[in-house]
Specification:
Low-confidence stretches: 1-7, 27-56
CATH topology: Spore Coat Polysaccharide Biosynthesis Protein SpsA, Chain A
Shape: globular
Number of helices: 9
CATH superfamily: Spore Coat Polysaccharide Biosynthesis Protein SpsA, Chain A
Length: 362
């Protein structure tokens, strides 16, 4: 049953207040417990990095977040994961990824907007959560996810390329980012990591992304091909990949792949690709029609059910990574739910430990 808008707003504000108080209390407690040497070292490291407002580096907050969440994080080689509805998901018996990639794994949001207006993610004015909309909530989800797992976060504002649609900027952005990242998770800000405690290495194991994989992405929904406005299959009737959410690995073949993708509309090697320079589906069409056939051995495509839009028109539930599209309210609600669920898991575990601990013990 849907709550009236006033009650719904009050509930969201209340939940956010609880989360804020919890974080502030955590920070105070951790600062109190830390010795002066550790605090001084952390401050010195942060100060030496200089002003990097949209790039996550080693900060005191990141260290605290990892300390709090680490007991709850799923091991990257855990055989099974069970969601809150009791559904079980598994990985192979011999998973490729056995350890965390850490800061060499980069979560990157690509967009053309600065997002620095009041109540947007990168505004220096005080943030009013109740008034925050657009893509900003998704950025907070990605930033927190990176902090929990020790990844690096980037927000890259792409510049328009001459003669190309805006979305082509992400292809060049991914190529340049590989010089500082071993793995790139490039996604639009309207995607939400549903389970903040599930590391991306576990998802790579789940989706069979191996050491030989250069690029991986989810496929479109098999049930979305009826509208002429939706490009969901290439000219050979094969489901197209979703280039709004791409995993890129720094292996030898990836640089040639990305260069070929970027130059596809020049038609030097791919006659007919020029139409995708400014015509939808742009870089998605170029990849689906040309690039994936030339680099098939290094590309992994997996069903959309675990990483796409959840809706009545699609065959995809968005189990682990959910795309909310243009629906800003659903995006904000999805981000709030992901953060609150993870926080209450932490609080619940701590409460149970203290409730049944002997009186006077810590």
């Amino acid at each position: 049953m849907m709550l009236p808008s006033g009650r719904a707003s009050f509930r969201r504000a209340t939940l956010f207040t609880i989360a804020s108080l919890f974080i502030l209390s955590l920070l105070w407690f951790k600062r109190w417990r830390s010795n002066d040497e550790k605090i001084t070292q952390s401050r010195t490291q942060s100060r030496n990095l200089g002003p990097m407002p949209v790039i996550l580096r080693q900060t005191l907050l990141a260290d605290l977040i990892r300390d709090v969440y680490s007991p709850h994080v799923l091991p990257v080689n855990e055989p099974f994961f069970r969601d809150y509805d009791g559904n079980q998901y598994s990985i192979s018996e011999n998973p490729t990824w056995q350890d965390s990639i850490g800061h060499r794994l980069c979560i990157i949001d690509f967009d053309t907007k600065p997002l620095d207006y009041p109540n947007e993610a990168f505004s220096w004015t005080r943030l009013d959560y109740s008034a925050m909309g657009g893509m900003s909530p998704g950025i907070f989800n990605h930033y927190l996810y990176a902090m929990i797992h020790g990844y690096t976060y980037h927000y890259i504002r792409t510049s328009p390329l001459e003669g190309r649609a805006e979305s082509w900027g992400r292809v060049a952005g991914m190529a340049s980012s590989l010089f500082s990242c071993d793995v790139i998770v490039a996604l639009d800000p309207d995607y939400v990591f549903q389970y903040l405690d599930v590391p991306y290495e576990w998802l790579m194991n789940r989706w069979n992304i191996t050491k030989d994989t250069a690029v991986a992405m989810p496929l479109g929904s098999p049930k979305q091909g009826t509208s002429k406005k939706i490009y969901n299959k290439d000219s050979q009737g094969r489901l197209a990949g979703n280039t709004d959410f791409v995993t890129v690995r720094r292996i030898e073949q990836v640089f040639g792949l990305l260069e070929a993708w970027q130059k596809c509309p020049d038609e030097k090697d791919y006659p007919g690709c020029k139409r995708f320079a400014n015509q939808e589906p742009n870089e998605k069409g170029a990849f689906a029609e040309y690039i994936r056939y030339g680099y098939a051995d290094t590309i992994v495509e997996f069903p959309c059910d675990e990483s796409a839009i959840k809706g009545s028109s699609a065959d995809c539930q968005g189990v682990f990574v959910r795309h909310h599209g243009a629906n800003g309210m659903l995006l904000k609600e999805g981000v709030t739910n992901s953060i609150m669920q993870s926080l209450f898991d932490v609080i619940h575990t701590d409460m149970l430990k203290r409730q049944f601990a002997p009186i006077g013990s810590e």
